[in-house]
């Protein structure tokens, strides 16, 4: 495909819950040429900030910004730096790792977690949100591989036993016989697909859109076949975020974004879905701001016309993720979208 015209230009926004200050930033986002924003909605927001969040989202929509909202860090099943307390309140919700220890992430197969997510959906869909953004749905993992994979809770083990007729293996994937490793990976993936199907159908029934953002292939998230996501009738849009680590070469950025963009567009075309790409705008080292232009260029070359950055102004409000030169990062992204 040739370079596309970017029709949807967006940034994520989080960390401020004062409508007065947020709406000043929304005006800045609008003036900078963006026409979309993603607001995060955490467990804390659901518990303490509903009225504020509704005011923020509704006012953003009234400014003609397309509004996406994600379950930020909810249950640690989704991406984000927000803390989750669901498993602290009810230990039965915990995913259980290969070593038998509970993790801070909730199991997507647990009925109580699914009940909570339906409450989250009801609250968010009561606003003027356009699209629910399912941000990196995954089983718990730690960077470095699947040496201690999840989940082996009683519900997952029972579900595996009923489906495959034998006990879920208690070994790393490279220690299992290949057929068993395939069964476990398929079970994990199908559990996430079933979870997404239930949640996205609820969203559709409330008159809102769904976008599912898949972690790139080098993360052992348990959701490898993106076509299974795109094939869901209740999914309107698919996305990914092949963010680079500090120190990655320009060649790596170009290669991975080109590869991911081609994969996304091929699947989106096959299933007649919209497609979206996310550009890294956090922890950008001084002098490497042009990496954003490279990522945007490769996304556009694949025909993607919906491009977001994570996040607003180089993520300057979250010091752990803050770019070295937030102003330069913001400028680089704006210029790349022209």
Strand order of the largest sheet: 1-2-3-6-7-8-9-10
DSSP E strands, number? 10
Assign an overall shape.
globular
Work out the helicity level.
40-55%
Name the average pLDDT: 96
Protein structure class: alpha/beta
Number of helices: 11
Distance between the termini: 18 Å
Biggest sheet descriptor: 8 strands, parallel, barrel
What is the string of helix and strand elements?
Answer: EHEHHEHEEHEHHEHEHEHEH
Low-pLDDT ranges: none
Radius of gyration over all CA atoms, rounded: 20 Å
Structural description of this entry:
The chain is an alpha/beta fold and 338 residues long. The protein contains eleven helices and ten strands. The protein has helices spanning 19-31, 43-48, 50-62, 86-89, 111-124, 154-164, 178-205, 226-230, 250-271, 290-301, 326-337, and strands spanning 8-13, 36-40, 66-70, 94-96, 102-106, 131-135, 209-214, 237-240, 274-280, 306-310. The strands form two sheets. Strands 1-2-3-6-7-8-9-10 form an eight-stranded parallel β-barrel, surrounded by five helices. The chain has a two-stranded antiparallel sheet with strand order 4-5. A hairpin with a 5-residue loop joins strand 4 and strand 5 (102-106). Helix 9 (250-271) packs parallel to helix 10 (290-301). The longest helix is centred in the middle third of the chain and has 28 residues, at 178-205. The mean pLDDT is 96.
């Amino acid at each position: 495909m040739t370079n596309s015209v970017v029709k949807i230009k967006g940034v994520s926004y989080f960390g401020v819950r004062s409508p007065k200050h947020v709406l000043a930033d929304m005006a800045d986002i609008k003036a900078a040429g963006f026409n979309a924003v993603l607001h995060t909605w955490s467990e804390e927001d659901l518990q303490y900030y509903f009225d504020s969040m509704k005011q923020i989202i509704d006012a953003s929509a009234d400014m003609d910004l397309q509004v996406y909202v994600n379950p930020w860090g909810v249950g640690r099943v989704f991406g984000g730096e927000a803390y989750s307390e669901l498993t602290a309140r009810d230990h039965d919700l915990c995913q259980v790792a290969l070593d038998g220890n509970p993790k801070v992430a909730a199991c997507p197969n647990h009925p109580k977690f699914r009940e909570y997510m339906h409450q989250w959906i009801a609250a968010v869909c009561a606003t003027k949100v356009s699209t629910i953004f399912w941000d990196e749905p995954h089983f718990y993992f730690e960077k470095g591989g699947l040496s201690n994979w999840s989940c082996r809770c009683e519900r997952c083990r029972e579900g595996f036993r009923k489906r495959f007729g034998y006990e879920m293996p208690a070994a790393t994937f490279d220690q299992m016989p290949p057929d068993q490793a395939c069964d476990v990976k398929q079970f994990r993936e199908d559990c996430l697909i079933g979870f997404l199907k239930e949640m996205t159908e609820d969203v559709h029934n409330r008159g809102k859109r769904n976008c599912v953002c898949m972690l790139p292939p080098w993360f052992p998230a348990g959701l490898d076949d993106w076509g299974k996501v795109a094939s869901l009738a209740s999914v309107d849009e698919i996305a990914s975020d092949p963010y680079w680590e500090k120190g990655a070469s320009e060649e790596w950025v170009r290669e991975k974004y080109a590869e991911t963009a081609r994969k996304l567009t091929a699947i989106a075309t096959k299933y007649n879905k919209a497609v979206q790409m996310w550009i890294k705008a956090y922890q950008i080292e001084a002098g490497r701001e042009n990496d954003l232009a490279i990522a945007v260029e490769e996304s556009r070359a694949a025909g993607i016309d919906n491009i977001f950055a994570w996040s607003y102004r180089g993520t300057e409000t979250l010091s752990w993720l803050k770019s070295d030169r937030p102003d330069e990062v913001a400028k680089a992204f704006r210029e790349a979208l022209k």
